[in-house]
Amino acid sequence: MSIAKERVLKEIELLPDGTTIDTKGLAQKLNLSRSVVSHYLNQLVKDKKIQKIAERPVKWSKVEAKNPIKHASFESVIGSDGSLKKAIEQLSAAAAYPPDGLNVLITGKSGVGKSFLARKLYSYSKEIGVIATKAPYIVLNCANYANNPELISSMLFGYVQGAFTGADTAKDGLLKEANGGYLFLDEVHRLSSENQEKLFSFIDSGQFYKMGDNVHPQKSKVRLIMATTETPENVLLTTFLRRIPVRINLPDYIDRPVDERLELINTLFMGEAHKINKKIFVDKDVVSTLLQLNHTGNIGYLKNTIKVSCAAAYHDCYNSTTITLKLKNLELETLPEFKDYGEIIVDPDKKKSFIPQISLEQKLTDITDSLKILEENYTDENLNTCRLRVQAVNKFINKESLKSGLHVQHQYLFKNIIAKQYGLNKTDYLEPIIYLLYVRHFKPNCDISKLKEVITNYLPRSFHVASKFYEKLPVLDSESHKSIALILALLLSDHVDENIQLRGLMVAHGENTATSIQAVINYLCGNYIFDAIDMPIDADITTVIKEANKLISSFNTTNGFILMIDMGSLSQLYGQISAQLDGDLLVVNNLTTLTALDLALQMKQNLPFKQIAEKAEKDYSIDVKYYEGFSQSMNILVSCISGLGIAEKISDIMRQYLPVGIKVIPIGYNSLKEKIAGKKWSYFKQTLFVLTTIDITEKVEFNHMNLYDILDSRGENKLKKWLSPYLTPGQLESFNNQLLRFFSKEGISERLSFLNPDVVLGEVETINRKYEDYYNLKLDGKVKLNLYMHIALMIERTMMRNTSEVPVKPKSEKERNFYKITKSIFQPIEIKYNIKVSTYEMSLLYELFKQFI
Questions:
Q1: Verdict on whether the full-model pTM lies above 0.85
Q2: Among 295, 432, 446, 685, whose Cα sits 20 to 30 Å from the Cα of 105?
Q3: C-beta pairs of 43-46 under 8 Å, 24+ apart in sequence
């Protein structure tokens, strides 16, 4: 292993448990270039010596110990891989922690399952062998004795004969009885302060005293589980709380994901079916109501409601082999809005179907691997591989699971949003596949942020449709939700025409006027062409404007945007959304199916925007307005001949300083040249100026400048003149410095072999500033860029001993003084890098500076 690679590994291994570090931070620590560090990190991941954490930015950590084997006690808990996953991980750790486990406090409202989970912790502890198979499990509900602190004290700690009236014989307390096992204190907040103090004294020492005896300490080895419905800080002593290292909060029933609520309902009905030995059919209205039950009694209340409803239905169907539950069997005062999750049928004689999980896990791993390849290298071949691997899980779909209420809702939304609203009516075969990933809470172990960036760049229309579907679908796991939306976008890209350049939006009054027309148009075109927003008659226009702006901000509108709207809202809506647009706008002020279809067919054919707009103005007798320009709001254009990469980075820098009203738009060089060649000056009517990476030699009717001219004093002054109405002098200077740093970093990164450009650039800036302060200089950007490049490369070649060792004597007093100040300025660098700047290098620096000093 190379020395540098060993240094990278050692630094990772020194990280505390559970701590991560990103590539940039590690490179700075080791004073190596980011690319070198990244190379070794990826090698170490392949060697399985470190772990890669798929975040943004990517993080790295040392290899963690393997997860403990799952045990039946917690596996059977509904939500063990969902909303309760973290809680169960904490409980597992509390049980296994040597030598005697950790005490636990479970909080949550009444009926959320605190007692149930406490019992599961006891069972789990027996399973893993940390307590004996016959270890005791003692329960005390402190609320039952809250009005008699002395009685509860005697129950907990025991008492000696004569300790109080009626204490005719000595008695051991619950702490003694629970020796070697668990003591569960429910409603622990009802303990008096005195009893809390006695209890935390026992936690600290393992000893306690019986009532009436302060001389003979009793010993017991007890694991404590406590539960409360209150906020612990409000009801328990701070000193007591400090002794409870593991604290877990359980969510309300209504806050659990919908799949967990469905499973809870199924499980409770199955329990009743076994008791009465009959099949139970639950009407979909009942399922909808039980799913949305929002009661302070939570799961406990749900359980009682189901029990009572089954009893009522049993009475009605006494002689039948199946009992049927309808709304009339539920004793509820109010009913929620109906949501179709289908019916539930439970059969006590029917076993659950088995899915070969091992093979499925391998297929899911294959999906993750293909996604990793795609995020690094987007090609049609890699995209097709991803699609095929996702579709390969089709054979693992359990037909019984497709009868569940959750699938009913999933299928309904898929059909209405993707097939109908967006016109993708040949995608129904994809629905069961993504449903399987959805119910499994599938989360691929890859960089989701990077994958999203790739997909939104190459498949923006497909991603938009997928996002609209997942906006309506109940969230089971937030991370999984984001991941599967990206996977669905990949699958839909086989059906969505990504070559359609224009974007279109319909807005109309009525509950579903716009979306109905949208569905018809997209269906007739056989593809996603238009989006739509409905405006209920009583809707506030500001709400619609907000929704429209949110929608438009996610679109690329540089090629043009078509807005179709019904009468009465044109002026208000256009004025509010125009600032969001980055290209031409056509407004058609009379939304009809016929007009929309005509425009959609032209959009599908990818006819030029101007041709569509001119035809609309000519053909339609209705009000049509055509707004031409790169943007409908004030803007600055940035164009780079080598592509959008540098233009986008410079645009990002500028946006940090400019007010919200000014848009910075990176545009393709060919698009800019085409507008100039055609003398389309109207496109630039809102443009403050254009920045390019080569000179514009033609005579044009807008301000423009070569980006690199900003670095000399003349260009800097010109930019100040253009931006001074919008930026303060301090902001202008900060912007120029950041731009200089960007160009310096771009150049230095290409030339440095192993030094980290981010680190060395900061050091070079400090060196340059010291020269400016000493000689009272104000150097322009081009001079600084030259100095930055020279000094950075000088440091590296000095480290590599790739410099002349021939001493150079100063030729004048001025030069001698320069050498002296240079030695002082470079002293921190010499110490840090263990180098010595030679007089030869000083002479080169002097040649660069002498014209200014």
A1: no
A2: 295
A3: 43/5, 44/5, 44/8, 44/9, 44/12
